[in-house]
Specification:
Blueprint lengths: L28 E3 L6 E2 L14 E5 L3 E10 L3 E7 L7 E4 L11 E6 L2 E7 L6 E6 L6 E5 L10 E5 L5 E5 L2 H5 L7 E5 L7 E4 L1 E3 L14 E4 L2 E8 L7 E5 L7 E4 L5 E3 L4 E2 L5 E6 L3 E8 L3 E7 L6 E3 L19 E6 L2 E8 L3 E7 L6 E5 L16 E6 L2 E7 L14 E6 L7 E4 L11 E6 L2 E6 L11 E5 L7 E2 L10 E7 L2 E6 L6 E3 L33 E2 L1 E8 L1 E5 L6 E5 L5 E6 L5 E3 L6 E9 L2 E9 L1
Parallel strand pairs: 41-48
Antiparallel strand pairs: 1-40, 2-4, 3-4, 4-5, 5-6, 7-8, 8-9, 9-10, 11-12, 12-13, 13-14, 15-17, 16-17, 17-18, 18-19, 20-21, 22-23, 23-24, 24-25, 26-27, 27-28, 28-29, 30-31, 31-32, 32-33, 34-35, 35-36, 36-37, 38-39, 39-40, 42-43, 43-46, 44-45, 44-47, 47-48
Length: 615
């Protein structure tokens, strides 16, 4: 029985491409793809997207970047580069001739990539793997003998296996609804098997547009969004350890009944699955009691719970208000995210995964409203130079002088209100810099942004900073108007990316003046942490020696490890003081009122706590 031809994805270029040969590039930058080759990587911010740019390899063997591109002779196919023009090539014409093979949902698997593709009209869209050579690029398994398995959601589970969603004949015909079930593979035909007959929702409902995160590996388990094959619960949180018995739904978070006959409940709209130090997963979920709020799970049903109801009450329709979560990032033993404050609006929030340790860090937009102040809408990027970077909205009214409005600009935080500041007014006045895709490469931070807005559009050019307070440097200006650079990736210390203005693959080799090869090299390989499991209970908080106690003016502490952060919490659990890298284990508390405080010291994975009486 012939399979239907895979239709592929149509990449709509919104800008008329410019010839690469007409562009003057900065020193250290070159275009890797040949003339006549168009890179078809999607411009969305997500690293989990249908047309992707993926770096794979290792410190020992080096790194390669895999991507999709098309030319007149082969259609759209899989390409690879080792960072040189000579080493940039078509990997394999998977579907021979000008018909595209539909390479999609590509993700890394150690030094290889896995993806879906179609090789002919008989074999449909199936699971493929590639090491960057023609001989090492092949279909792993024909999962659906009578159609296409359309595999996606590839997520490495451990050193030798990955999980993914796929459909076979049974899942396609079960319950009169086409479903993808959970599969596991080691990259071989014999090692590729159905793991659990649950409906895996990938790409799922897009709660956060192109930022949505569908899977998250934590230690040696993978958290994902799924439902039972009988659609009993909607989109809920599941976890797998690679065994059928260890693949379970953790909790029915949203218990609203959507089918009175079957008792089926609504989905939890799960999003922003974020690995917290290979210990737990942080995520956003919607419940009928509290709306969309931050949640956490350690991989057990009893260890899966809402952290805090940050936005209380209901809206005009009677639906519970929800704080939501956006651009969650892990930093200094906390998760930072855009969340709700009843007075300050949508602002920078952080949590140590406890209700008492969930707080509003900083009010970015101080323009007054009837409820308090306006929304700062922070979008978080990455940690760089000891702080966490983001962009935030300060207000867009040039006539307002108190506070001065700068538009949407770059910010950073060290976790305290005092240590949170606007990094630069890159787009002068109230113009937006619209920064996105912050990434640290070889000790410098790169991002796409703009320092001007011609005709009200967004240019998205490539910028760089070498330390947290350096005014951003524009690396290049490809064309007049919109460059729209995107998909910034770290390939062994060099930046690779593409652009909508010139849909080629670019490589940029740069080292800052004070570059330290021992310090400024990022780890690009998966960390599985063999000593840690999401099911392993954390040790009870260790005792922290405090003296004097009671104290006045200052206190000192003793711990058997180097303490990175000291937090002082009042009796309600609110953080009143935070000190990073405390000097001589001594903390100034001269500004604190008399009372009882909790002192928490973070030392790597260890957390120390004790009570302090302030006189």
């Amino acid at each position: 029985m012939k399979k239907s031809t895979f239709l592929g994805f149509i990449i709509a270029l919104l800008i008329t491409p410019v010839k690469a040969a007409d562009v003057i590039l900065p020193e250290g930058m070159e275009i890797l793809t040949p003339v006549g080759v168009t890179v078809t990587v999607e411009d969305s911010r997500s690293v989990d997207k249908a047309k992707n740019l993926v770096v794979a390899g290792s410190k020992q063997t080096g790194y390669k970047a895999f991507f999709t591109a098309q030319d007149a002779e082969h259609g759209e196919e899989l390409w690879v580069t080792d960072g040189t023009v000579a080493g940039t090539k078509l990997v394999k014409d998977i579907f021979p001739g000008t018909t595209s093979s539909g390479v999609a949902w590509m993700q890394r698997f150690n030094d290889k990539v896995v993806f879906q593709a179609q090789s002919d009209t008989e074999t449909g869209t199936e699971l493929w793997i590639s090491d960057g050579t023609e001989a090492g690029t092949y279909m792993v398994k024909d999962i659906h003998f009578f159609g296409s398995s359309n595999p996606s959601g590839f997520t490495q589970l451990n050193e030798n296996q990955f999980v993914f969603a796929a459909q076979d004949f049974e899942s396609e015909t079960y319950n009169e609804k086409v479903q993808r079930w959970l599969w596991i593979s080691d990259g071989t035909e014999a090692g590729t098997n159905l793991l659990k007959d649950c409906e895996v929702l990938h790409p799922g409902s897009h709660a956060a547009s192109d930022n949505e995160l569908h899977f998250a590996r934590v230690a040696r388990k993978v958290f994902f969004k799924a439902d039972t094959k009988d659609q009993q619960f909607g989109q809920e949180l599941w976890v797998t350890d690679g065994t059928e018995a260890g693949t379970i739904m953790l909790k029915d978070i949203n218990t609203s009944i959507v089918n009175e006959l079957t008792g089926a409940t609504a989905g939890a709209q799960i999003d922003w699955l974020t690995n917290f130090y290979n210990e737990k997963v942080f995520f956003k979920a919607f419940s009928n009691e509290f709306g969309a709020e931050p949640w956490v799970s350690d991989g057990t049903p009893e260890g899966t719970y809402m952290i805090k109801d940050m936005f209380t009450g209901v809206n005009a329709s009677g639906v519970p208000n929800g704080s939501g979560v956006f651009t969650a990032r892990v930093y200094n033993r906390e998760v930072y995210f855009r969340g709700h404050d009843d007075t300050l609006g949508e602002e920078l929030c952080a949590t140590d995964l406890t209700e008492a340790g969930t707080r509003t860090v900083f009010d970015i937009n101080k323009n007054p409203t009837t409820a308090g102040t306006a929304n700062g809408f922070p979008d978080l990027f990455c940690e760089f130079d000891g702080v966490l970077f983001m962009k935030g909205q300060t207000g867009g009214d040039a006539a307002v002088l108190d506070p001065v409005n700068y538009g949407l600009e770059l910010f950073y935080t060290d976790g305290t209100a005092e240590g949170t500041k606007m990094q630069s007014d890159l787009n002068p006045g109230v113009g937006h810099n619209a920064a996105w895709e912050g990434i640290v490469i070889s000790g410098s931070m790169y991002f796409r942004a703009q320092n001007a807005v011609p005709a009200g559009s967004q240019t998205w050019e490539l910028f760089r900073i070498n330390d947290k307070d350096e005014f951003p440097v524009k690396v290049m200006d490809l064309v007049e108007g919109q460059d729209f650079v995107h998909s910034l990736r770290n390939m062994g210390g060099d930046v690779v990316f593409t652009s909508k203005a010139i849909p080629s693959l670019f490589r940029y080799h740069y080292r800052k003046p004070n570059y330290d090869p021992l310090k400024d090299v990022e780890n690009l390989d998966p960390v599985f942490d063999p000593s840690t499991s999401v099911n392993t209970p954390r040790e009870a908080p260790k005792s922290l020696g405090l003296y004097p106690n009671p104290a006045s003016g200052y206190f000192s502490f003793e711990a058997d490890k180097l303490v990175e952060i000291v937090r002082v919490l009042d009796i309600s659990g609110k953080e009143v003081l935070r000190v990073a890298s405390p000097v001589n284990n001594k903390i100034d508390i001269s500004h604190l009122n008399a009372g009882v405080y909790t002192i928490q010291a973070n030392a790597g994975a260890e957390i120390y706590r004790n009570l302090l009486i302030v006189k």
